[in-house]
Specification:
Blueprint: E1 5-8, H1 22-37, E2 45-48, H2 50-58, H3 65-82, E3 85-86, E4 92-93, E5 95-101, E6 112-115, H4 121-129, H5 132-149, H6 155-169, H7 179-197, H8 205-219, H9 223-232, E7 240-246, E8 257-262, E9 274-279, H10 285-288, E10 294-295, H11 298-304, H12 311-314, H13 316-333, E11 337-344, E12 347-355, H14 360-373, H15 378-384, H16 391-394, E13 397-398, E14 406-409, E15 411-414, E16 417-423, H17 426-434, E17 439-443, H18 451-456, E18 459-462, H19 470-478, E19 482-484, E20 489-492, E21 497-500, E22 503-506, E23 510-514, E24 519-522, E25 527-528, H20 534-546, E26 550-554, H21 558-566, E27 572-576, H22 578-581, H23 587-595, H24 599-624, E28 628-632, H25 646-656, H26 660-669, H27 682-687, H28 689-708, E29 715-720, H29 726-747, E30 754-759, H30 762-766, H31 768-772, E31 777-780, H32 782-790, H33 798-806, H34 823-837, E32 842-845, H35 853-862, E33 866-869, H36 874-888
This protein binds adenosine-5'-diphosphate (ADP) and magnesium ion (2 copies).
Residues 110-111 line the site of one magnesium ion (MG).
């Protein structure tokens, strides 16, 4: 039997590497053991490994005898280290029970503190601490937490009872409650438990302990946890660990405190301690938003112009010790740490450390500065960044000079700006967002039940809670702007209205948030383009130095091309020419071409399109100035261009002289049962060669005109879509070569160009060796290759794909992240066979997957020459390509 219960702290042996392995003991457990091992003050405890959770859930909720024995032995370790016994009425050991998965996961069970208290031990605690008020306060907290998270009793009932108790006494704050007030409240709480739970509050400490352990394990399968896992691609079979740890008390009066701190500012990345604390408080008081937490450092307090003393001023000794710990932990983990601590009668205790969540902007600044400080090297810095998070930096921010109608100001909890309609609950926010509305979630405070609404929202506003509140932490992690603790916000949920500052608003009204300033504004505020220099530029330079693959873009308008070049694109990987046909000014000529009775009719219509198409390519080539441009000839089935509206038919009748009925019949003739597999791609080029002739001519004429004008010569790479056989490509390549020769002869100018194909049918992948004899390049069209390999139509997949992902049939949506096991095999095989036939075959990918980091890692492994992504994904692809190269060369 391998060990699954690991003691830590209190002189435990920390030499087993499994105890510091997050996969074995979860993140919290691993870091508690690590901190104890390097000599930091950690209350003694033990961790039950994640595999016990997996086993418990598989066994239908049973604990093994071995686990029971190991837990009681580990409890003995805590008892010896602390010198108190669990359940001892005279001098009881109290513990916390905490969940802790491999990665930090909102949605898991909330921590239960003060476990081990009952009607007898509370008296012992009062006697040994000499503080009855503290003992009864701890007991009432315990009952509420345990009843809420383990027994499922609504915590609102307890909060109500507390409010009533305070009102009866005429008290304003919890701190005014005396021992006997808390004791009376404990009776109320116990009555609530009996009424709601149908049984008395469990008095037996061992029953309390196992109940809490069971609740932690069960929470792994809660809806909240499942939603979070799905949004974050966390496997369902990891399980969670349980941490049981001796209590230390931040609620033992004015020399005690509890707090949350970051070693650097998680919003800006600045190297400055950052955090919040509360005197005489316990556990989640700091993040719960019930009391307003205070500043950690004097500098932060002064900057905010706040009154109550900072920890640096009020508890200088404990603060100095904390600052020493910050330094030590950063050097140990070589990363910014997010730390939870408690001061019990002047003594500092550490309860958690982890790599702190940060905004994308902060992540870049920290990476650059830590490399500068010599804390990490470039490679570590690059590998640590989340490519997808860069997206936050590429979008517009609020124009600093635009007028702002500021309604109120709260805490700048997560930077960025967002405008949208006010939504007052998560479900409504999600429903409106699903209809394409921009929404802002406005809540008194958020909880893990709101995750889906926060995800759907552009920004989050809360009336309560500090910089480390649930809303703030989750918003920063998601990259959503957030203003928390905005005191001017009052919500009337029943009426679906709210007041922000002096303004009366209703759900659906538009507001704007400035998460960096904490401002809430009426209406929509003008935005400006992002800043791509500075830390962003430095990191991109590093990425470019470390990557092997080139990064191109999928773009078909000069504006997109320009943006992609700003983002660092090194060419076009996919220019879809059909988008040019949809242009309002041209669609009529396109329709005339499609509906023509014969070749002559088609040629007449195509002649009208030629100059337009030539101008398109010239504009694109100009922007791309000498870079390679892959242009895909017409791909979609023709009927996509056909009119459907009555007015369009009438207009077309005018233009062509045909009657409306005739046009309708022609349109019907073009109907296909399954257009995705119908008359499209190279099949159009084979049957209507004049279409591809016109497009090839437009490309070559545009290139020659540019060279004539003295501009950099483009490198057109002409791409034939939907090829299944070598013959298709041979025919169309000959056609393109013929047109090229014609244009070159007419213009007296020559352009270098190559012809290649998209690999998007399984047959093309299998026959890649033969096809490569005709192709100078392959571009993997993984959108269609996924559709044709899986037999799944992307447009019809919505009905089952979500369920497939939920149930783990697909690990991820195969249209978002390449199905490496299946479709990936075809890519790999085609690359091999293609290169065997033609050593200098250029290989790239142009499906959506070209902007997905996991798929990019696969492209590196297969040895593709480049990936191509939509403009906003280009920086993501540059970083992901560098990470892929770095991991591959390890
Ligand atoms: P979360 O994962 O939500 O942060 P934790 O398990 O870290 O939950 O617990 C939340 C808070 O509870 C901690 O930050 C700490 O303040 C308090 N806490 C947990 N265990 C103890 C303990 N043994 N003694 C004192 N406070 C504790
Ligand atoms: Mg929690
Ligand atoms: Mg914690």
């Amino acid at each position: 039997m391998t060990q699954t219960v690991f003691p830590f702290g209190g002189g435990a042996d920390h030499s087993d590497p499994r105890q510091k392995d997050k996969a074995v003991v979860g993140g919290k457990g691993a870091n508690l053991a690590e901190m104890a091992a390097i000599g930091l003050p950690v209350p003694p405890g033990f961790t039950i490994a994640t595999e016990e959770c997996v086993r418990y859930l598989a066994d239908g909720g049973d604990f093994s005898a071995a686990l029971r024995d190991a837990v009681s032995a580990a409890l003995g370790h805590i008892e010896r280290a602390v010198g108190k016994r669990f359940g001892d009425a005279a001098d009881p050991l109290l513990v916390s029970v905490r969940s802790g998965a491999r990665v930090s996961m909102p949605g898991m069970m909330d921590t239960v503190l003060n476990l081990g208290l009952n009607d007898a031990t509370v008296l012992g605690l009062a006697a040994t601490s000499g503080d009855a008020r503290f003992a009864w306060d701890s007991y009432r907290r315990f009952i509420q937490m345990y009843a809420d998270v383990v027994l499922g009793v609504d915590h609102g009932l307890f909060e109500e009872a507390l409010e009533i108790a305070k009102e009866d006494k005429g008290f304003y704050a919890d701190t005014e409650m005396e021992a006997e007030d808390w004791q009376a409240l404990v009776d109320d709480y116990k009555a609530i438990v009996v009424a709601e739970h149908g049984a008395p509050f469990p008095q037996e400490p061992n029953e309390q302990l196992w109940g809490a352990i069971r609740a932690v394990f069960d929470s792994w399968d809660s809806d909240r946890a499942r939603v979070y896992r799905r949004l974050n691609d966390i496997p369902g079979d990891w399980g969670t660990a349980v941490n049981v740890q001796a209590m230390v008390f931040g609620n033992m009066g004015d020399t005690s405190a509890t707090g949350v701190a970051f070693t650097r500012d998680p919003s800006t990345g600045e190297r400055a301690f950052y955090g919040e604390w509360l005197v005489n408080a316990q556990g989640e008081d700091v993040v719960a938003g019930i009391r307003t937490p205070q500043y950690l450092t004097r500098a932060a307090r002064e900057a905010a112009g706040a009154k109550p003393a900072s920890m640096e001023e009020a508890m200088p000794a404990a603060y100095a010790e904390l600052a020493r710990v910050f330094d030590l932990l950063e050097r140990h983990y070589r990363d910014m740490q997010d730390i939870e601590f408690t001061v019990e009668r002047g003594a500092l205790w550490l309860l958690q450390t982890r790599s702190g969540k940060r905004t994308a902007k902060a992540a870049l600044r920290m990476a650059v500065e830590m490399v500068g400080e010599g804390l990490i090297d470039e490679r570590t810095a690059l590998l640590r960044l989340d490519p997808m998070a860069l997206d936050q930096l590429l979008h517009p921010t609020l124009d600093p000079v635009a007028p702002r109608d500021v309604l109120t100001t709260g805490l700048p909890a997560s930077p960025g700006a967002a405008s949208g309609r006010i939504m007052l609950d998560a479900d409504t926010a999600e429903a409106w967002a699903a209809r394409g509305e921009k929404v802002i979630l406005v809540r008194v405070e958020t909880s893990p039940e709101d995750i889906h609404g926060m995800h759907a929202a552009r920004g989050i506003l809360t009336a309560r809670g500090g910089m480390t509140s649930h809303a703030a932490v989750v918003a920063r992690g998601m990259g959503r702007p957030c203003v928390s603790g905005a005191q001017g916000v009052t919500i009337d949920l029943a009426a679906r209205t709210l007041r922000i500052g002096g303004a009366a608003l209703a759900e659906g009204d538009v507001i704007t948030l400035d998460g960096a300033k904490g401002q809430v504004m009426a209406g929509e505020v003008r935005t400006i383009e992002p800043e791509l220099a500075g830390d962003f530029g430095t990191v991109m330079e590093w990425a470019d130095r470390h990557r092997r693959m080139r990064v191109r873009t999928n773009a078909e308008t000069p504006a997109d091309c320009r943006m992609a070049r700003q983002f660092g694109a090194e060419g076009i990987g996919l220019c879809r020419t059909e988008h040019m046909f949809f242009d309002a000014a041209r669609i009529s000529a396109v329709r005339q071409m499609i509906l023509a009775e014969d070749e002559a009719g088609r040629r007449a219509a195509l002649a009208k399109l030629l100059p337009e198409q030539r101008a398109d390519f010239r504009a694109i080539f100009e922007v791309m100035a000498g870079l390679p441009c892959t242009i895909r000839l017409l791909d979609p089935p023709l009927h996509e261009f056909l009119p459907t509206a009555e007015a369009d038919f009438a207009e077309l009748a005018d233009a062509t002289g045909y009657g409306i009925e005739h046009l309708r019949r022609r349109a019907q003739e073009l109907h296909e049962f399954n257009p995705m597999l119908g008359h499209r791609g190279c099949r159009l080029g084979i049957t209507y060669p004049e279409i591809y002739e016109m497009q090839a001519r437009a490309i070559f004429e545009a290139a020659c005109a540019l060279i004539g004008a003295g501009a950099a010569a483009p490198v057109p790479e002409i791409m034939i879509p939907l090829v299944a056989t070598r013959q298709e490509l041979a025919i169309l390549r000959a056609l393109i070569d013929r047109v090229a020769a014609e244009v070159f002869a007419e213009s007296g100018c020559e352009v270098e160009y190559i012809v290649g194909t998209m690999i998007e049918l399984p047959r093309a992948a299998l026959m890649a060796g033969e096809i490569a004899e005709e192709a100078r390049f392959f571009s993997f069209g993984t959108n269609d290759l996924t559709q044709t390999t899986l037999g799944v139509s992307r447009d019809d997949a919505a009905r089952f794909l979500g369920i497939y992902v939920d149930r783990g049939i697909f690990a991820r949506d195969p249209f978002v992240s390449l199905d490496i096991d299946g479709v990936g095999q075809l890519v790999e095989l085609a690359a091999e066979r293609g290169r065997a036939a033609r050593a200098d075959l250029k290989l790239g990918i142009c499906g959506e997957h070209g902007g997905d980091p996991a798929s990019i890692a696969f492209c590196e492994a297969v040895g593709l020459d480049y990936v191509s992504a939509s403009p906003y994904r280009v920086p993501i692809a540059r970083l992901a390509a560098a990470q892929a190269a770095l991991s591959a060369s390890r």
